[in-house]
Amino acid sequence: MKYVVVSGGVISGIGKGVLASSTGLLLKTKGLKVTSIKIDPYMNIDAGTMSPLEHGEVFVLNDGGEADLDLGNYERYINVTLTRDHNITTGKIYQHVIERERRGEYLGKTVQIVPHLTNAIQDWIERVAKIPVDDTDEEPDVCIIELGGTVGDIESAPFVEALRQFQFRVGPDNFALIHVSLVPFIHGEQKTKPTQAAIKDLRSLGLTPDIIACRCQAELEASTINKIAMFCNLGPKQVLDVYDVNSTYHVPLLLQKQGIIDLLTRKLALDQISISGRFRDRGNGLLGKWRQLTTQHDRSFETVSIAMVGKYTHLQDSYLSVIKALEHSAMKCHRRLEILWIESSDLESESDEKAKYHQAWTKLCRADGILVPGGFGTRGTEGMIKAANWARENKKPYLGICLGLQIAVIEFARNVCELDGANSEELDPETETKAVVFMPEGDREKLGGTMRLGARTTVFQPGSEKSKIRKLYGSADSVEERHRHRYEVNPELVETFEAAGLKFVGRDTAGQRMQVLELDNHPYYVATQYHPEYLSRVLDPSRPILGLVAAACGKLDEITKGQSAEIASGEF
């Protein structure tokens, strides 16, 4: 097993996740089987209870694990399916060690950070790295490990020490370190001191980078690269210039051009790994498709605008997977994506803040399509209901995700079925007409890991053969998508809704839980209880989100036929 560690210095949020994902993609183009691990140094067990406005979105995995958003980057770029164990947190490690201590597994020893915690980290990495993640039962060839945060932070100290020991545990031929650092541009000059200081700190902790990936606004000058190489004891070719590009989808091509795979091949002897023809052939075609897609996107001039009506719009990373799925879909439709961010509460009342109210409605009215994503709590939900109502009445393409489905049901109950005061039990526990109810198996006391989580089957119902969303799935009988919710459509009102024209075309395997709805006589009015954005891939966009974008730019029939042909050919 080969290990590639990606660490960061100077500041957080400089793109370690994208660089790790891009490196994994390039390794996969060589036919290697690649997996990935994210280390998060916070004390939470997982990201499930963290505010989207503080941490960004919670990414849900097939097994129901609630993980850091970077695992979404790995799955989208490398096209693998990860598990909850691929996200390591300080909370998980401490919990694991303490449980072992309580069972007496340390034989009376004093349990310490070194060696017990650091050994537990290394054991966890080795165990998880061997889990097959491709459509095979074979162990991966390479594991990409991203160390979250910034080297030097007190929170990450045990993990840095564990990785220092790990390099000797697996041997120098099986361990490579890429350090991502910032090169700021100040007063017309590229400054190298922050990177020099970061590498000095890294070395003082016992880790020496094999590659330095320099994040910068514009291309680095040759003198800057040579200076960093000299003071950081590397060759100039080991200093990569990761400057700002049109989109993150260009980063793999940028890294490939600068020879990152050649560097890793020499360090890790990757050319000595036996590669089966099946994986070699797949890898050869992957980079070509990626380059073709980015080139076509760069040449696109027509735009498609999607109004994102949400409640966490102040931090756009709260909807990262939705954004990426929209980007994938826009590229598939040969359009440039314009997201019109609308804070849903701004749609509610003109008397609160008149300027914001009119700006929000102007954006909504000029959008080609409307998307209401997931969320929790009452704030802004009346604005979402107004957006769903406007989309329904004005035949504007609409997609609701999770809460967005429940919003569509509430709006329909109030304005079509004339059920006055209809609401969700979550939003108004005292409402007499509960269009959305708490799921019977839910836990009202504990928040972490207690929702309906992970991959679940949706069965398309008899009579739904003409459904737009079903056709986008290639007229499949059933699909598997990932869920994250505590509330569901009230099964007692389903007949009332369907009699009025709101069709629940997709249900759970028991036929009792509503998972996909679609409105008749509308260009595209679809909502899913699951989160289709989690399974979107760069070369294979999420079907419901692709449908929204295609309908918004007038290409739904064309895209639907194309999807059916690709599925029939086995391309996806």
TrEMBL record:
Molecular function in Gene Ontology: ATP binding; CTP synthase activity; identical protein binding
Keyword ATP-binding on entry: yes
GO BP, one annotated term: CTP biosynthetic process
GO cellular-component term (any): cytoophidium
Superkingdom per UniProt: Eukaryota
UniProt-listed Pfam families: CTP_synth_N (PF06418), GATase (PF00117)
Coiled coil: none
Purpose: Catalyzes the ATP-dependent amination of UTP to CTP with either L-glutamine or ammonia as the source of nitrogen.
NCBIfam families cross-referenced by the UniProt entry: PRK05380.1, PyrG
This protein's name: CTP synthase
Lineage summary: Eukaryota, Fungi, Dikarya, Ascomycota, Saccharomycotina
